[in-house]
Amino acid sequence: MVLDIETVPDLDAARLLLGFGPGAPREEVRAALTEHCRRPGQADDAIFIKPILQKVAAISVILCHRMHGQGPWEVELLQTRHTGDLSERDVLERLDRLMGERPQTAKQPCIVGWNTSGFDLPVLRFRVVATRLRAPNLTFRQPSDMPDWKWEKERGSRPPHDYWKRYADCHLDLMEVLANWSSGPRCKLVEIAAALGLPGKAGGVEGSMVETMVEEGRIEEVGRYCEGDVGLLFGVWLRYQLSCGQLDNQAHALSWRSFARCVRSRAVPFDHLQPLLDVADEEARLAGFIPAEPALA
Q1: Per residue in 105-152, pLDDT tens?
Q2: pTM score, whole prediction
Q3: pLDDT tens per residue across span 35-55
Q4: C-alpha to C-alpha distance for 198 and 18, rounded to whole angstroms
Q5: Distance separating alpha carbons of residues 83 and 90, to the nearest angstrom
Q6: What angle do CA 187, 218, 82 make, to 5 degrees?
Q7: How is residue 31 annotated by DSSP?
Q8: Cα 115 to Cα 64, 67, 163, 214, 261, distances in angstroms
């Protein structure tokens, strides 16, 4: 599961935290929240709202699988949910459901993300608690006195994935891995994408613009932006797997081709993903395959 989320400040929490009444103007509450999160000497454009004081606006996932850990990845689902269509609680509940065992493999997915350890997963868990949601897949923690062999012996099944573990195989935070878990320089997703020759952010949108877009009722655009990021992350992850020897050139190209097939088969516009489809077609050409299938009529 390649995962990306978009968030906005939780002004309801800010009102309670900072002592504002229900009638306080939004702008006043937002300015106070900014000051609350400001570090000494920090400029306005460098202030980051703490994960506990944010809520989810959109979630995008790509689900893919391959049999027996070999060959190309088959993309089975590219999906985006946002709070323009569903409540935040429903968006979270649907994500937790997707994190259960997949019918193709009878296994839970491994999460692939960018700064998921430092941001996405903490935010998701905070919001699960805040919305009173039961989310066993997202929040399961394996007891320290129950190693895999003991769990299997006593319960007759393997334990669920524990996505809390920093170095677990079930969660790959690409930003941390490529930075050698903070011992090396970190970079933004758009920076590594540029270094790999991949396209930038969908529609020129940046994460700092999401809050304003949500305020203006442009949540559909936020969803498309989130979907563009998860597609870009998928491309970075494929290149990482290629460099690690987990994909050869042919499997790498076929994985891209499966992504393009999934995008083009959906009954929704995909103009925001066209730069990534162009990459998929170029990878197919370089590998000697015919171009990817055209869009369905």
Answers
A1: 788 999 999 999 999 999 999 999 999 999 999 999 888 888 888 988
A2: 0.92
A3: 999 999 888 888 999 999 999
A4: 43
A5: 9
A6: 70
A7: H
A8: 20, 28, 14, 22, 28
**The 54-65 sheet, strands edge to edge:** 74-82, 54-65, 2-9, 111-113, 171-173
In a domain, 215, yes or no: yes
CATH of the domain at 173: 3.30.420.10
- Best CA proximity match to 237, nearest among 5, 68, 75, 7: 75
On average, the pLDDT of the chain sits at 91
Which pLDDT value is given to residue 293?
A: 54
Structure tokens at 259: 């992504």
Query: Of how many residues is the chain composed?
Result: 297
User: Nearest CA to 136 among 163, 118, 155, 112?
Assistant: 163
**Would 154 be classed as within a structural domain?**
yes
| Domain total in the chain | 1
Domain of residue 67, residue span: 2-286
291 inside domain:
no
Asked whether residue 21 is domain-assigned, the answer is: yes
